[in-house]
Amino acid sequence: MRRWRLWIDDEAGSAALEFILMGLVLLVPVVYLVVTLGLIQGQTMGVEAGARHIARAVSLAPDIETARARADEVLRDVVDEYGLDAKEVEVAFRCRPAGVACPSAGATLVVTVRTRVGLPLVPPVLGLDRLARVDVAASAAQRISRYWGAG
Predict the structure, then answer these.
(1) Cross-strand pairs, 42
(2) Beta bridge partners of 95
(3) Which of 3, 22, 75, 106 has its CA 20 to 30 A from that of 49?
């Protein structure tokens, strides 16, 4: 009976320390996860908005030169608004049906915007910052008027 009592007395006062330690051990990764997911979500919203607005701007342009100028302007605005890395953003245009010039009257324009999101607090040691990136992409389709470019 005496051994049992000594063992119980030896545990006095350590529960608070254990709760604090376990709270920190669990809280730090959860906070990092929330921050990382928020950053990725913000960049995802940026590429989605970019694809949607570029597709709309190009489909409403009267000619190819105006379409290019509007696409560049919209892309600059989206990069500034959402804080995207301008060097990492890629834009691709595709028209359906296959084989038609892009953009052309009556075609469906598909714009794809891609970027890479770096994870927060990853040091640039041994190239870890280049490896700790998440690819984010979004596509938007917009039908071009059959009278597009007619003047």
Answers:
(1) none
(2) 109
(3) 106
